[in-house]
Each structure stands twice: as C-alpha cells, then as structure tokens.
Amino acid sequence: MDQSELRRLERQCIQEEAPQCTAACPLHVDVKQFCALMARRRFDKAWGVLAKTLPLPGVLARLCDGPCRDECVRKDAGGAIRVDLLERACAANAKPVGPPKSLPSRHKSVAVVGGTLTGLSATWELARRGFNVTLFCGTPGDCLSAVPASVLPEGVLARELEGLASMGAEIKEGVPPTPELLDSLAEEKDAVFLDTDDLPESMRDFGTPDEITLGTGRAGVFASRAGETSPVLQAAAGRRAANSMERYTQGVSMVSDRGLEGPYETRLFTSLDKVEPVPPVETDAVYSETEARDEAKRCLQCECLECVKVCEYLKHYKYYPKVYARRIYNNESIVMGTRQANGMINSCMLCGLCKAVCPEDFDMGDVCLEARRTMVEKGTMPPSAHDFALRDMAFALGERCTLARHAPGASASEYVFFPGCQLAASDPGGVEAAYADLRARLGDVGLMLRCCGAPSHWAGRVSLFEESVAELKSAWNSLGGPKIIAACPTCMKTLRSALPDAEIVSQWSVLRALGLPEGTRNGTETLAVNDPCAARHDAVLREDVRALLEGAGVPVAEPELTGEYTECCGFGGLLSEANPELGMKVSERRAGAMEEDFITYCVMCRDMIARTGKRAMHLYDLLYPASDDPAARPSPGYSARRENRVRLREGMLRDLWGEDAGPGAEPYESVRVAFTDQAAANLEARRILVSDVQKVLFHARASGKRFVHGETGRFLVRHRPVVVTYWVEFEETGDGYLVHNAWSHRMKIAGER
Amino acid sequence: MSVIKVPEAEIGGWRCATCDEDLSMRVVNLEYLDSVFTVELPACPKCGMVLIPENLALGKMHQVEQLLEDK
C-alpha cells in the first residue's frame, strides 16, 4: 500500500465525515457533541462547545435560527432536532464564560466599518486571530434593539461587547461611516471590512462583493452582501470576511480550499434502520432542564459504522476501516519494531459483507488480502498464522486424497463432479451418495477429489495458489475439460476464477433441473437457511437452494443477514486458524442469529455453526440422508477430517474402480494410539494431529529417549518433524499407547535435531 | 548474554528414563526466527536431554514466539 492508496482508502471510509448538522451550520458548530452534553444535562460543557465556535455566543446562541434542521437526519424519524431551542436552553442554564483568548498579535492593523451582527462577528473573529482591529460604527449592535428581551435579555449584548474589548478590539462608537473615513482606512490599514447593511446607500457603490472572498473592486477592502437577515448567516459573513482578510494580509491565495467555509454537503451516512420515530419536544418559551435533556436525547449522534454493526471482526478491533487502513499502512512501513496489525490483517474473513453494506463500497477484505500478499512477499508474514491450514491444504492435495477419473467404465466425461476437500472431510458418505446419484441420473460423470486452493488464496500465498491452479487445470484437462459440477460455493468461486474456460455449474442447479434425489427427507420443521459468504454474489445459487428446499417441503426462515448480506461463519479468510478465539466468537454470533436449526450448503458453515453446539445441517443431510438426527452431528476434528478424505478416496477407488488405493500408509501410522478425553480435546485445541502424535511415538520408539514421571509412571517424549516440536505424555498399554497429554512449540532447542 | 530464568521451567517430577537420572537445571539456547535466548531449563545431567514443560510451551514460550513473528 503506498501513500496515495492509503489516502484513497481513508477517503473512501466516511465514518469521520462531518455530521449533516455541522456541515449545514454556516458556522460549523459541533452540534453532535453539543447534543450529547445537553442530553446529560452538562450545560456548562455544552456551552463550551457553542462558545468555542460562535462569535458573540451569548447573542448568537439566542438568535440562531437553526438552519441545520433542514439537513438533520432525525427529520425523517419524528422531526429534526430543535437545536435552536436547545441553544437557548443552554444559554439560559449555563454559567457564562469569558471570551476566548486571542492569538498573539500579528502586528496587522485592520478595520471594520459598521456594527450589525455581521460587523460585530467580523470584529470578534479578527480580534481572536490576533489582528489589531478597530470597529467604527454608530451604536454597536443597534440592529438588535428590536429583539424582545424574552429572547435576548438585557445585558447579554453588553457583556459580549465587553468581551470584544477584552479580546483587544477597539470600538469607536458614534463614528458615522463616510467615504472619507473609508479612504483614510483603506490608506492606513492592512485590510478593511465594510458591514454593508450598516452603510448609507451612498457608500454602497462597490457592486456586489465576490461570493467566495467578499472582495470589492478595491484592493484590501471587503464587504458583506446586503440584505442578509439570518443572524447565523450574518455571523458567517463576518467570519468569511475575517478569513479573506487573513489571507489577504498573508499574501496567500484568496480562493483555494474555501469549499468548506460555508454550509457544505457531507458524505456521512447514518442509517435510520431500527430508529423509532420520536417527535420533537415543543415549547412556547425556553426548555426546562428536563425538556432540553429529552430533546437532546433524540439526537441520533450520527455516524456510519454500517460495516462495524454487522461484523464481529471489525467490531473486535474497536475502530472502523479508515483507522484500520492507516494501521495496515503503518504496519507495512515498519522496518524495525513490532508489527502490531499482523493479527488484525490475518483475522479478516474476506467475506465481502462490509463492502455489501458500505455506502461507499469499502472492502476490508481486499485491503487485508493485499496486505497479506505483501507480508508474504516481504517475508514478514508470521509463520504460524496459516501454517496449519496450509499443511492441511497440502494434505488435501496430496496423492492420498486426490483423484481425477472418468466414471467407472467410461473413457470420457461430459461432466465431472467436484465435491471439494471439506465436504470429503466432513461428510464422505454424503459425497459418495451424491456421486452415485449424479451418475445414475446424468450418465458418465467423472470425479475430481482435491482442494480448490482457496486456503492459499486467503493466506496471500500467490505462488502457492498459482501452483495449485496449474495442477487443478492439468487434472481437469486430463479428463478432457468436462463441465464441472461443484458442490462447495467456495470451490465454485475459486474454480470460476482459476478455470475461466471451464463451464462450472453448482450441484444444486443440476439437482434443481433433475429433480430431488430419491430418498430425500421431506417436510421437516422450519429451518433457518444460511447462505455461505461465497454465495453472496451468486443469486442463482441462492435461489436454486431455496427451490430445492421448497421442493422438499421444508419451510425456511431467513436470518436478518441473509442472501447478499449474509455473514461469515468464522471460517472465511482462515480466521479460525489465524485467530481461533475471534473465530469462535464469529461462529457463535452466526449460530445465535436464529432459533431454528440451520440448513446450509457449505459444509464449513455447517461445521463451524455445529461446533458452537447449535444444531445445523448441510443440504446433503436432507437430500442424501444417512442418520436420523444429522443436525446433531458434531463437527469432525482435524484428524478425522484428514482420515475421512483418505478413506473416501480409498473406498471409492476400491468400490467403483476395483483398484487399490495406491500409495500406502506411512510407517508411523502403524503406531496404535488411544487418547483420554482431555488429551483428545487438547489435541484439537492445540491443532495437533493424531498423525503428529504417531510420528512422535514412532520416533521415540526408535530413539529410546524419554522422560518418566516419578509419581504417575507416565512417559514423555518429543520430536520435531519439521518446524514444530511436539511433546507427548503417555502410558504404554498392551499393544500401543494411551496418550494423556500433548503440547507443542515452534521455538527450537539449539542443537536439537 | 544473561541467562533467563523462568518460573514455568519446573522439573515437575520428571526424570530421564533413558539414563535413570534426576533432572537438574541447565543453561540452554533456544532459537526462533534468527533470535537466540539463553534460558535455564530442566535437563538430564548425563545425556543432556532438555525438558520443555507444558506450561512453559503454551505460556511464555508461545508469547515470545508470537512477539518474534511480529518483529
């Protein structure tokens, strides 16, 4: 990620954009913060928010006509927040504060001619910025004399004028504006502002001031546009003039980057989903404290967070994509030191839900996948992050798990069935039944058993993925390039990008066309349908599955996040490998989304949901039923998954093709091993395979090296097959071993072989 | 380099079955990703076989591995 890419990403995430109220306010008051404080009756603090931004806050807070209300997001859920009334309530309840401290003097002398709210505001802004400012006027704020005391109590204006003076502004009262005065000021001062509404008609001969700069034809002389009646727009004109005078005296561009000075449009999106309409608190006078609190509580505290609301991963790291993009950029920039974002980068499910819900299409998955690729390329990918998953992929691509065959007795294939390595690992019986069904009804359907390569893609291992694609292509070509019937949505997605020439159809489309298999379990109770994230952009696939369920008479319920907006089960992007705890949280979130048992068509979704204890079925469990209560089937462990793949291939070769499985078992597999329940659970949690334990015991038997425990009499041995050292604690039984515990580490004892 | 002593490096009742010896603490180098740590660990005084107890492997050692992986 280079800096321009970071900028692009930071801009794409709108969470930090200004809320509609602040953007619409000509003075950009932080209305959101103001309301948050008012809702907690923190009037003094709330006043601080107003006084920070408003010139003559005591006056303006009472006169503000609330132009923000036209843009308030709440207007469509009961009515816009009455910020004008809240400001009045705040002014009535808060302790007045002194004027802001002026910046150190700039040694620039400027003048303001005219004392309506526009001229007073300009004077305030200029004094605050360290200008030596002199205000020439008749009676300052004379235009406010008509405002009733109920709105602007006596003394408020006087106090603000005192504030002006204490900020260093000089107020010359009773000076009538004349052309001569203007001439002399234009001569003497560094810049002059004319409050047009306080000038006699005879002096308004400078035409209409420029909209952006309020410049007149005369250098250094700025003027407001006549006839502005809104107090807050008058104050905004004063501020605009002060900005121009500051630029003018600094000799910088008068026009660049002034788009955000007045009201502007913001891109912030705030959802009204689940927001109850509540009408504004009405009053004829000034809100009481509790009325003000209740009105302020209606403020939605606008923010986007659309992605964070639906994603446990984005929520887990406590911020939002704009911050995450910056962290990833920083992570990549580190030469020496700790890369603190590695875990975050490797925990994204790459499921695409954030992009689906984002008003600006921000895809955290794209950013994380690219970051993973960069880490792999630079050699900074933590070795342990995806090691186990990649070893599993290598196993699923090994000779004991792979097969590419025409149907028994056939020499060509119109179709080939591609169940995917996880379906083979979780439900080998289902794969066998599905293959038999396809052959029975479609004729010569070949079979390909292998992994599609998705884990290497998710791990950011580009070259490993390319290797697996090349092998896949060659296996597919060896069958004459048949149409592929895929059962796994992730395989489908991967195959479609890896084999662009192949015709790929889902098994569910085929079954929809062929009709339900004989023996389909019909009419169960209502099931919650779970779309896997790989089906997010495949409406046809989702529809085929629902048609099959309807055909089987299964009433379905849809989770809130479904279809295009489905959420990940925790397996996507190798989350559950890189960050098991968060992976479990994601699975639990999905599992808890529905009361009903789940039905899905991705076996990893099925297993990830099932491992939380939630009842879940794969579509095979309905179409090719093998047990009475498939929803209760536990998720098979890592070792069982490997064994299932091997046994499936062996069984099919033997039963369908009448062949031996070919490469036989490894010598260490002869080690007979049993596990206590605790040991079995430890193995699974620590990602230690039964075969790893067998290797250790096999090796120890040969070396004779072992520890013995003085009390239990158990033995302890270790072995490091490649990059992980495994320890196994066991007792010897008649013909083998009972394992009590096992653990592992990657750190190596120096000199250890 | 100073020797790191870790409380998790307990002998915990283990003996070397091969040499029939009680274990004693020994200074050992541990390596991971181009880093070397000198640690005192239980080992057989005769054959030198080093013990890495479960608590050490899954606790401090794992933490250090993760830290080094992020370096």
Quick recap:
The complex is a heterodimer of chains A (753) and B (71). Chain A has 753 residues and is of the alpha/beta class. Chain A contains 32 helices and 20 strands.
Name the descriptors:
heterodimer, A: 753 residues, alpha/beta, 5-stranded parallel β-sheet, 5-stranded mixed β-sheet, elongated, B: 71 residues, alpha+beta, 3-stranded mixed β-sheet, 2 helices, 5 strands
Word description of this protein:
The complex is a heterodimer of chains A (753) and B (71). In chain A, helix 7 links the parallel strand 1 and strand 2 (132-136). Helices cover 43% and strands 11% of the residues of chain A. In chain A, helix 3 packs antiparallel against helix 4, helix 3 packs across helix 11 and helix 7 (117-128) packs across helix 10 (231-250). A 3-stranded mixed β-sheet of chain B has the order 1-5-4, with no helix packed on it. In chain B, a hairpin with a 4-residue loop joins strand 2 (14-16) and strand 3 (21-22). Chain B is elongated, with a radius of gyration of 13 Å. The A-B interface holds A 337-340, 342-343, 382-385, 686, 704-712, 715-716, 718, 725, 727, 741, 743-752 and B 13-18, 23, 28-33, 36, 47, 49-52, 54, 57-58, 61-62, 64-67, 69-71.
Secondary-structure topology with pairs:
The complex is a heterodimer of chains A (753) and B (71).
Chain A: H1 3-12, H2 20-24, H3 31-39, H4 43-53, H5 57-63, H6 83-93, E1 109-113, H7 117-128, E2 132-136, H8 156-166, E3 170-172, H9 179-188, E4 191-194, E5 221-223, H10 231-250, H11 289-297, H12 306-310, H13 312-316, H14 321-333, H15 342-347, H16 353-357, H17 364-378, H18 383-396, E6 403-405, E7 415-418, H19 421-426, H20 428-442, E8 445-449, H21 454-458, H22 462-478, E9 483-486, H23 489-498, E10 504-506, H24 507-514, E11 527-530, H25 539-551, E12 556-557, H26 575-578, H27 580-591, E13 598-600, H28 603-610, E14 616-618, H29 619-623, H30 638-657, E15 673-675, H31 677-685, H32 690-703, E16 707-709, E17 715-719, E18 725-732, E19 737-745, E20 748-749
Helix pairs in contact in A: 1-14, 3-4, 3-11, 4-6, 5-6, 6-11, 7-10, 14-17, 20-30, 24-25
Chain B: E1 4-5, E2 14-16, E3 21-22, E4 24-32, E5 35-43, H1 54-58, H2 60-69
Parallel strand pairs in B: 1-5
Antiparallel strand pairs in B: 2-3, 4-5
